[in-house]
Amino acid sequence: MSPERVVISMSRKIGSLDQPLLDGNLYAINADGTQPGLLVGQSVQGAGLGTKIQPKKVEQIAAFLVDDLPADDKNIVISVSPFTDDPFTRADRLDVISGRRQQLARAPVRNADFVTDNQGVVRFALGYGTDNVRKLYYRAGDGAEWEMIGAENDQGLEIPVGFSADDKTAYFTAERKSGPDAIVAYDIASKTRKEILRDAKVDPSGYIYRNGTSVPVGAFFIDGKRTTRFFDDSAPEAKLYRSLEAAFGGDAVRITSSSSDGRLALIETSSARSPGDFFLFDTVAKKASHLLSRRDWFDPAEMADKRGIALKARDGLELHGYLTVPNGSAGKNLPMVVLPHGGPFGIRESWSFDDDSQMLAAAGYAVLQLDFRGSGGYGRAFTDAGAGEWGGKMQDDLTDATRWAIQQGVADKDRICIYGASYGAYAALMGVAKEQGLYKCAAGYVGVYDLPAMFKTGDIQRRGSGETYLREWIGDPAKLAAVSPNRLADRIKVPVFLAAGGEDERAPIEHSKGMERALIKAGTPVETLYYDTEGHGFYTEAHRREYYTRLLAFLSRHLGGQTAAAPAGKPAAAK
Fold first, then answer.
1. Beta carbons within 8 Å of 302's beta carbon, 6+ residues apart
2. Can you tell me the distance from the alpha carbon of 555 to that of 520, in angstroms, rounded to the nearest whole number?
3. Please, are residues 536 and 499 in contact by the beta-carbon 8 Å criterion?
4. Is the confidence at residue 377, as pLDDT, over 90?
5. Distances (CA, A) of 463 to 41, 55, 504
6. Does position 572 have pLDDT exceeding 80, yes or no?
7. What is the DSSP letter of 396?
8. 321, 370 contact by CB (below 8 A)
9. Residue 528: is its pLDDT beyond 60?
10. Which of 347, 394, 467, 543 could hold 343 in an S-S bridge, CB 3.0 to 4.6 Å?
11. How many CB atoms lie within 10 A of CB 459?
């Protein structure tokens, strides 16, 4: 958190799970490799707050960075969450050398996120009240009482993102009852709000900050491609971004960091064809030097094109998404894979490099990705429109988009499959159950297929508010059997491929095994790939290679696209 010392969030493998997960430990090391050690977290043996590390006592907490305090080379502000059933988060000042901590604030709500001002003072806390309603609290300064200034309701919620340079104004992302979220300036003294930036279609997707500070000056928006907008178009940051965007020919540009004097900036460029390149830009000499590429083993010019699309659902709701077509293709009469995203709520597609869509396009397929109702990025009302619509209107949106692609001449109506992960896997299996004749096959990866079972197994129902969430967003468990693919296997008349991990807590493997049994009983061809040590998505390279090889072989048999290139000495065909 200074030119000499770095603080790192740590991950670990938990149980037999292959993929490491963040564990709430913070580790520090000097830039020259000296003085390494754990500072705080469940793996630190210490005597607790304000003490030096002592042996044989463990404080059961998870810690995460809140503010790196740019003007302070010795301390940072962290959030500290105790491992209890009802955690009230603390904000502590942490010495990054000794590990000593001093409590700065205790949140008045559970599982809170903190926001500091430009002096490093904790001013906002956003979390859940005992009534499971998200609430926003403000305090005037150190030691001041918390005051609730907002709560989640029909009008939405405000989420603080930073302060003006003089700390007199706070900036919020503000949900609206209808339409996209706005950016609002909150005057601290008068407690009044003023809308300063709002797009007609999409929510802000990230913020742009003044050099070397946490002062927001603009935001990114994704409407097809990613664009930038600023609170003040005459600001130096706006002029710099405009210059860089012009220089990089339409690629998305992001300044990731700058030198303290502002002369040098680290620039990231990316696009749907490229996962990203990094440049060192001299703001005085106006010269950019290439540093590295995220993937330097392929040419972005050979990747597939990805363009934004818009269409109307059958009830008139405007829908957006993306269509990827093979490089060099005319984009007509192609075999197509419909690729619904996971989540599903609050998740959206974006104009960025996507492994699955590029892989499928390289195999010869058009790829359709849709932000069906319930997705994020288009305002709260659009997300709320998906509540209780598993197998209903959310599924109809995917059907309508598939038919749109046929009508546009993009997709060959006799060569379409649907494939997804997590909720996307549910949508894939529900799609072939509900829309017989539209799809030629379906593939589900780490999916949920038995909706009533979600109330009994999996990590969602184990949360304090899990059952409330499930009832509000998925529906009444007594009525969900009618939209559970494992109960509709007799309606599925096309081949299915299922893959899952035995350590998956979000979509326990029994969902896939139960779906397999139901398909076998119905006489439907089904292939499976299970790994006992994988979780919600395969992590081990060998497992991922096997999965994608099997997936491409499955799609090839039913749509006619290419299979995976086999490693030397091994066949590409599926087992």
1. 327
2. 20
3. no
4. yes
5. 22, 33, 16
6. no
7. H
8. yes
9. yes
10. 347
11. 13
Distance of alpha carbon 570 from alpha carbon 236, whole angstroms:
57
**Separation CA 388–CA 469 (nearest Å):** 11
Query: At residue 415, what are phi and psi to the nearest 5 degrees?
Result: -140, 65
What residues contact residue 341 under an 8 Å CB cut-off, 6+ apart?
Answer: 347, 348, 349, 369, 371, 375, 420, 423, 424
Q: CA 516 to CA 498: how far, in whole Å?
A: 8
Cβ atoms within 10 Å, residue 58: 12
d(CA 135, CA 152): 6
**Phi-psi category of 179—alpha, beta or left, where left has phi over 0 and alpha has psi -120 to 50?**
left
**Cα distance between residue 353 and residue 304, in whole Å:** 10
**Is residue 472 within 8 Å of 442, Cβ to Cβ?**
no
Six-digit token pair at 148? 């609730």
CA diameter of the chain: 73
Contact between 306 and 322 under an 8 Å Cβ cutoff? The reply is: yes
User: Which tokens go with 247?
Assistant: 């220089």
pLDDT value of position 213: 86
Q: Give pLDDT, residue 203.
A: 97
Enumerate long-range contacts of 67-71, CB under 8 Å, 24 or more apart.
67/116, 67/120, 67/214, 68/1, 68/7, 69/1, 69/120, 70/212, 70/213, 71/120
Distance (Å, rounded) from C-alpha 80 to C-alpha 87?
A: 10
- Alpha carbon distance 497, 94 (integer Å): 50
- pLDDT 10s digits, 1-37: 678 899 999 887 666 556 677 888 999 999 999 999 9
Tokens linked to 517: 């049994």
47 has a pLDDT exceeding 50: no
d(CA 183, CA 193): 10
CA neighbor of 425 nearest in space, from 479, 365, 501, 329: 501
Q: Is the pLDDT of residue 54 over 50?
A: no
